[in-house]
Amino acid sequence: MLIGVSMVLMQSKVVVALSSQEVERIGKEITVRIVDSQNPNVAGSGVLMKHSGNTYVGVDVGVRLPDVVAAAPKADDFFIKANEKYRQKDYRGAIADYTQAIRLNPNYALAYNNRGKARYELGDKQGAIADFNFALKINPNYAEAYYNRGNVRHDLKDLQGAIADYNSALKINPSYANAYYNRGVVRTELKDLQGAIADYTSALKINPNYADAYYNRGVIRAELGDKQGEIADYTSALKINPNFAQAYFNRGVVRAQLGDLKGAIADFNSALNINLNNDKFYYNRGVARYRLGDPKGAIADYNSAIKINPNFAQAYNNRGAARYDLGDPKGAIA
């Protein structure tokens, strides 16, 4: 240790002295790095004068090492900051940082992809596509960039372009459940119902807990007249997501069509427990109640539907019929 207030940090080339005279002689020639024990962050240099056992005597000559110069920000630094801003929904701030990352690294495919997503969130769909294009030019095997571009193309009604992008994403990553799902959505819009079912089924093989895939497949099965398959899919969706109001509603509609009015009402009740502001939930429960011989309950439901949607013509018509059945012809006309 250094006598006084400073500690000596020996340089990498250690000099071993055999005698005190030798120490004094070579000490004049050795410059050592000195750290103040009271302030370890302050460093300087000194001359080693003599040595006794493990004790050294040195003189601080007052030469300080230069301050550490902060390293210039790297592309990854901006990328990380941008991701955090994106997570916080500060999309403009995220775009600015992704742009800085790209300026420092023009081949930063991930930054282009993520900037594209931020632009999409701000409604700049053409800018988003341009960024996904850049990402794919840098990395032609970037499955997520194909997927993201496919989503934007779908929004822009370029359905064939969307399918082409989902195809490319799946060619690179055959386990991309969301790509199967979204391709199923586009195929549904193109009336390729069997193709849509195949895509939802593929998505479910990869992710058996994909409630939306069960739901959408159920909707397609309804269009194909497969009511039991439809009910099975809605039931599977509800096991995964018990708060899926629309799945309860759709299952209730099918049950009503199959004559299971009590089961239908139970499903409409469940849907309304989740969402009290859907006019169709009330209306369909009113229809089921009327068919079960409960015109008063039906009228109450039609009233609720009309309160939410004052232009619901069929609800007015059905309420009039129920009032007539209760001996209120004037109310039926009103």
TrEMBL record:
Keywords: Repeat, TPR repeat. GO terms for biological process: receptor-mediated virion attachment to host cell. SMART domains: TPR. It comes from the Bacteria. GO terms for cellular component: cell outer membrane. TPR repeats lie at residues 75-108, 109-142, 143-176, 177-210, 211-244, 245-278, 279-312. InterPro entries: TPR-like_helical_dom_sf, TPR_rpt, Ycf3. The keyword Cell cycle does not apply. This is Pilus assembly protein PilF. It comes from Fischerella muscicola CCMEE 5323.
